Amino acid sequence: MSSVRQYPGSNGEFKLADNIPAGNYVLYCDITYSDGDSTETVTEKFTFTYKECAHENGYSDGKCTNCGALCDHSDIDINTGKCNECAHQFVATISTDGNAPTGYDTLADCLDSITAETGNYVKIYQDIGDTSATATLDTIDVKTQCYDRP
To answer: pLDDT band at residue 86, thresholds of 50, 70 and 90?
Structure first.
């Protein structure tokens, strides 16, 4: 059995864990009441059911508006470079076969991630802003972006 301690400024709120499994729970809390002259401690019983957030209300700035979890960007549109869950637009993506891409906010980060295991399929979706990023690629797909060599 674990205990939860309320700290000043917590406003009666507490967090059990980041990785609590879904299920039914019973929580016992010792609550101390004081009127200045006397103090009384009462054990209160709370029951609740925890359901994992389905993120059904969407995301704001990459965070779920319900639970605050960061989007994992696991569903990126290969044609647009935009996450289908939170609508974050990536500068570039890399994938092994052009599908199930991993998104990057800078071309340099994307090119730095290339290994023999990741493959060399890179797509650029917007202004890369970095003319010094280099890599040896098998395939590069530039979506209507222009780059003038110095």
So the answer is: very high
